Germination protein (Siminovitchia fordii), 405 residues
Amino acid sequence: MRISCSIFAAAFFILLLSGCGERKELETQAFVVAIGLDKAEDDNLVDVTFQIANPQVNTSQTAEAQNEPSSDIVTVTAPDLLAAKELVQTSHSRKVTFAHLETFIVEEDLARSDLFHNIMGSAIVDPEVRRESVMIVSREKASKFIHANKPTMETRPHKYYEFMEKRWEKTGLVPLSNLNIFFHRVDGELFLAIYATTEREEVEKRNEDTYLAGEVPQKSGDPVQMIGSAIIQNRKMIGTLDGEETRLSLLLRRKSLLESMVASFPDPVNKEFRISVRMMRNGNTKVKVDTNREPAKVQVKVPVRLQITSNPGLVSYTMNEEKQKILKQSIKENLERSSLKLIKKMQNEYKGEPFVWYVPARKNFWTVKQFEKYDWEKHFQDADIDVQYDVMIENFGEQIRPPVK
């Protein structure tokens, strides 16, 4: 009996410890936090840049790594990402892993080529590549972007990308852009990717959100600017949207995770100035699509709440109810005019829509084949579209007494 119990106990512990056979020590691994993809000189090859985090920087071992860089940046040329992952091991002593990979940076020239989708499609074969990884399109080469990106406030590169990618929820100046959404909208529908650069072509504009990356007049600070979108359709990049157009695209979607944004509008009373407001969604956007008529009819109603944050023209909106109505109507008309201008641009120039209106349109059909035969993208180009903003102003700034009745 004692021998049987001993054998059973030994077998039990062997089963418990057998899972340690594939154990890998942290110090033996090299964690890639960002990957850059560029066109190589050979049309069928790609330059892959790996930004590998230094695990000692900004940890308890910082004293031992005072003179070490925060990351190691290596570029290799290969047919695809997985082949590049093997090639980089020829010069790197640790096992390269994508377990912490969160960011793909794609050169604009590559994004506009037919090779782009093939490279991205082969990338997700690796089980370590997560579909939540963010996609950024850089105006310059991705390798140059990664080398030039030296943020002053973040010593750990993965934290920089993580914080910057989260900013879209608060500003709306860039879209939610990850591999999962990219592969869902790879054919037909438009996909918006984050547009960024470290190069400068500064342009001063009165409207603060009508910039593209690189145009924002910035005198110092981090070199990277992320603002606007790269438009991707049918597996390649076809154009760009600026910050304002990106914001409107998010507002016109039926559902969006965008929390709030600060925007400015012309002061309707004192036209030399602009009024800044904090804009928030006041519920989901209502989208109705009628596919039983020609042309198709789309009705969109966007509910928004506004808080006046700045009034440089010093117009007494807090004390004058009539001026409040003028301001509210002016903002409503401005939003509707800008939205319709964007929609016309998408219909005439890009022949597609980034507003995800194909979802309510698809509900009008019994089967997917019927919807595909209808060809929503083609019907969108001629659709009759009506956009209305339901504007509610919560407050008009600081006030010391109630408005005059």
Remarks:
- The mean pLDDT is 82.
- The first helix runs from residue 2 to 17.
- The radius of gyration is 26 Å.
